[in-house]
Q: What sequence folds into this?
């Protein structure tokens, strides 16, 4: 799914805005995050080093805001017509995924963010950390480490392995 969406954004914006900005914007989005950014960078034939740096910055940038404000935003929206169901669903889904984080504590959060699978990543990791009332000073470095590891994994998948096989 991330590849399809990343490919769509690349086709939509290529030639209109700088490729670095395309990759940065894609990396900001939930669901896509660094995974989608690295795919877009490869599609745009960006060099590896600028790609990973831009993707990391794009993915980490929203995390402090999520950690600080998401519970307040949820509390505000919960009482608004049409939002209560959505908020409840997001909280339930995140708390359902939080079992591994609770069980493995710090390592659980790092691994949850690091494994590039649908429904994992920095955004969901930050949401889980916020719902579990983790302090930002503790959660932010763990999430950053998870994003870094995801970057290593995605770099290997998008740059190293295809390069090894001549793609």
A:
């Amino acid at each position: 799914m991330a590849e399809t969406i990343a490919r769509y954004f690349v086709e939509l914006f290529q030639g209109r805005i700088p490729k670095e900005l395309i990759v940065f914007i894609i990396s900001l989005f939930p669901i896509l995050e660094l995974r989608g950014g690295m795919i877009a960078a490869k599609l745009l034939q960006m060099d590896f080093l600028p790609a990973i740096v831009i993707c990391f910055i794009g993915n980490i940038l929203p995390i402090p805001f999520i950690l600080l404000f998401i519970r307040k935003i949820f509390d505000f929206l919960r009482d608004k017509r049409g939002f209560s169901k959505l908020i409840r669903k997001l909280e339930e889904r995140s708390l359902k995924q939080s079992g591994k984080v609770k069980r493995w504590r710090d390592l659980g959060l790092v691994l949850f963010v690091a494994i590039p699978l649908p429904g994992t990543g920095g955004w969901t990791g930050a949401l889980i950390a916020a719902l579990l009332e983790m302090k930002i000073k503790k959660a932010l470095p763990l999430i950053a480490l998870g994003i870094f590891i995801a970057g290593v994994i995605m770099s290997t998948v998008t740059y190293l392995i295809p390069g090894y096989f001549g793609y």
Observations:
- The helical segments are 2-13, 19-28, 33-43, 48-60, 63-78, 84-114, 122-131, 136-164.
- The chain has a mean pLDDT of 90.
- The CA atoms of residues 144 and 161 lie 24 Å apart.
